[in-house]
Design a protein that fits this description.
The chain is built from eleven helices and ten strands. It is of the alpha/beta class.
Length: about 260
């Protein structure tokens, strides 16, 4: 019996150690490049280079309109690259808003490896590129990035799509058998951060979201004193949550 207990403990310790070592591979799912030039995906776009505080050069696309009331900085989720956000940029520019799409470190053609601190540097580098009023649009993990940036410099308005309350909370939802909070190196405490930000904010969620529990997004909306928009039947990656009419209307309402 003692031997069996020791073996079981050893297996658990090994699993925990492996998860701790490779945890960021369970959080970040970058798609590599190559990524096309901005003008190839939307007329009038141009390629831009972001310079981070820790010395990385990151690529992005700027779709700039001369009479825009604001620039929407898009903070992507944890998967893919900026090519997957073209439909959002197309819809927003068609309504008179400038848009900045960029990739975090390790995504697209960019160097580096994503971490919470690194994404903070990346977000601030994106903000440095824009003159004039800005709106932050954060999707899922990007909502956490936008929330942190808002504590550094408040935007004109903010839209958080499918936000989680914290990385530990959403991690515990998917891995209830692991001591997620104790293991995590990256925290992303969204509700804590948005509670201290006073800007017009909209929280969007899909009622059938299988990645971020809708209850967590509702909690973020409460903490942010935000308008809550629920899209009935929508799952996390459905197109209606990427660039659907409710998404566009939400951005316009805070622009």
């Amino acid at each position: 019996m003692r031997r069996a207990v020791l073996i079981a403990v050893a297996v658990v310790v090994t699993i925990v150690a492996v998860v701790f070592t490779f945890q960021r591979k369970l959080v970040y799912f970058p798609s590599p490049g190559p990524v096309p030039a901005a003008e190839e995906v939307l007329p009038g776009g141009h390629d831009v280079r972001l310079v981070t505080a820790d010395g990385l050069l990151l690529d992005g696309w700027h779709f700039e309109l001369p009479d825009a009331t604001a620039t929407v900085i898009v903070f992507p989720g944890n998967a893919g690259n900026r090519s997957g956000r073209v439909s959002l940029a197309r819809e927003l520019t068609a309504r008179g808003l400038s848009v900045l799409l960029f990739d975090y470190r390790g995504y697209g053609d960019n160097p580096g490896k994503p971490t919470e601190e690194g994404l903070t540097f990346d977000a601030r580098a994106a903000l440095d590129l824009i003159d004039g009023p800005v709106v932050y649009f954060g999707e899922s993990l990007g909502a956490a990035v936008a929330a942190e940036l808002a504590t550094f410099r408040a935007p004109k308005g903010m839209v958080l799509r499918s936000p989680f309350t914290s990385l530990a909370a959403v991690g515990s939802h998917h891995y209830p058998w692991l001591p997620v909070k104790a293991l995590l190196q990256d925290k992303f405490p969204v509700t804590e951060r948005v509670s201290g930000v006073d800007v017009p904010t909209v929280v969007l969620l899909g009622t059938k979201d299988s990645v971020v529990p809708p209850a967590q997004s509702r909690e973020v909306a409460t903490a942010a004193r935000a308008k809550l928009v629920e899209i009935d039947g929508a799952d996390h990656n459905d197109e209606v949550l990427v660039s659907g009419p409710q998404v566009i209307d939400a951005v316009l309402s805070v622009s």
